[in-house]
Amino acid sequence: MRSTSSMSRTLRTTSSLAPASRTGPTPSVLVGLTVLLLFLGAPMLLDRLGISQHYLPLFYVDLIGVSVQVVFMALLNVFFYLDKRRIALELCLLFVLLNTVLTLVTLYLGPTFFGYGFTVSLIVCVLAGLVRLNGALQKLEYSTFMLEH
Asked: In whole angstroms, what is the distance from residue 12 CA to residue 66 CA?
């Protein structure tokens, strides 16, 4: 794009990239609807599968965790697209560290807290990723035109 486009066209393209990455794609809506249906139908689903209703809280916590994981993976996708591999690596390392530590804590606390380590670690990583994405998008024109690649 650098050698064949005018500066105004490139600026228009980059200015449309930031809002598009912030709004998220349509498949997110489908994931949200699936999570909602699973959340509402969880008691019936567990009953039909012959699983005790005692596992319902664990199902809810893990369902929330998996839906947050989809957001985390989408963030990583944006960072790879923007060639921000270092940020993606930092977020993945943060997830590994937090998931390990918090899962060990929940194992120590007992079955009531199972799943919370995974979910909380993902929530923290998504929040950190959103902060880093905001900073990366604010510097998009600078990194596109001024930095040597």
From this structure: 35
